[in-house]
Amino acid sequence: MRAAWLVAWLVGSTACQSRDEPARGSPPQSSAAAIARSATEHARVGIPLPELDRTLTRALAQPERSVSGPTLAGVLSRCAGIAVDTERQQLLRSVLFRHLQPSMVSALAGLLARPLPSARDADEPSLLERRQCELFRQSLAVELLGVIAAPESVEPVIRVLLDTSKAELHALCTLALLRTGAPAERRAIALLARDDEHLPVLASVLGQMRTTGACAALGSALSRSRDVAARARLAIELVRCRDAAVLEKYRSVHETTPGALELGAGVLAHEALAEAAVGAFDDSLVPWLLERARTGLARDRQQSSELFTAIRLMTPEQMPAVRNVVRSRRVPQELEVFVQAAEQLKRCERLLSCYVVALSEPSHQQGTQQVRGVKAAIMLGVLGNEPARDAIIRRYPRIQSPLIRFWAAQAVGHLTRQPSEATLAALDDLTRHADAGAPQDLALEQVLWRLRLQRSR
């Protein structure tokens, strides 16, 4: 009975309700049964905001998982302005997580099957609101499927991931698949072996997983592919896998990729390949990157992505060689980044505790001095160890810059070779106790669930 009501509520809704629509229906009742009866009436006439608030408040007061699916799904199907209302979003999330049930998978999958109104058609205020409502509903549905983490959750999330019209949901889809774990890994590997059309997103998911199986699948796909764009995309993901042979494959792809090749949205393949190498946290790449910056295609560019990557990865001993290339090129942007990174290197050298402190230094949290905080995070990945990783985790709540937080999270993932329960618990605590009004820290959550997946393999 619950499943039937859930489907009716989730996929049977029409338009979002207006914020100023008057409340309808009888006064609220306190029991879970009364909430469900109220949901039945709302399925016919819609949920105005005052009644929505009362329904959510009553549901939050009920014992866990005692409220039936219709009530929960009905809230999703009638956003009533909630898509841009942070306070109500938090209340809705609290209710959904309190009463979330595996039986909701099929209804959530049905919601994700709905088309997302095109951004090109959202010029009219009413169309824009419809798009915001639908985007909010589907974002939340993807997140809920990831939390349920049932094998049945994989296919609907994969379908959204392969839908180019829903690119705004792809990062959440990747996180949901990481949370689902082994079933999602097997499905992504199977699709990569036969689906060249969707190779970019499939390679990205496996690159986030970075299990032995995922890295092997990326390597196999690279070996059999003859398409230069596909090879570049695979190398971008593969370079972050911990394998000495991977770096040689990466360098080979980089050196044979045509200079004018674009990977979409005007992004040159050479630039994307160079930037991806930072995630390897391997300073042995620096001499090769400098050679690429001095010669060949990079020499003629206004800015060299290879040189920027060398600046990020350089150790104190490599700094003079990098300085020579920067001076010879005389590109102001490269010189500015080098000066900031070099100052941080000279300040900390190989002292890990110094780099940890630099992550949250107030002057590093905005503007051009963020380069110093980013450099500190990358040096911790290059030079660090497990005690340094633990220090990053303790320092993480004090980091304000999203850019520095991103690279600090990547360093934590790189320095965790065999995830312990204590490390996973510390990361879980960080993701659970973030400020209520802060944006979701997808980078840190992806690291947490990637490590959980790696531990389970």
Describe the protein in words:
This protein has helices at 2-11, 32-45, 49-61, 69-77, 86-99, 105-112, 125-148, 154-161, 170-180, 182-192, 199-209, 212-224, 228-238, 244-256, 269-276, 286-294, 296-299, 305-313, 319-329, 332-348, 352-359, 370-383, 386-395, 402-415, 421-432, 442-456. Residues 1-30 and 35-46 have low confidence and may be disordered. The longest helix has 24 residues, at 125-148. 66% of the residues lie in helices and 0% in strands. The radius of gyration is 25 Å and the shape is globular. The two termini are 38 Å apart. α8 runs antiparallel to α9, α19 (319-329) packs antiparallel against α20 and α21 packs antiparallel against α22. It is mostly helical.
Largest sheet: number of strands, sense, barrel closure: none
Query: Alpha-carbon distance between the termini?
Result: 38 Å
- Spans of at least 5 consecutive residues with low confidence: 1-30, 35-46
Mean pLDDT: 84
The helix count comes to: 26
How big is the Rg?
25 Å
Shape: globular
Content of β-strand: under 5%
The number of strands is 0
- The string of secondary-structure elements, in order, is HHHHHHHHHHHHHHHHHHHHHHHHHH
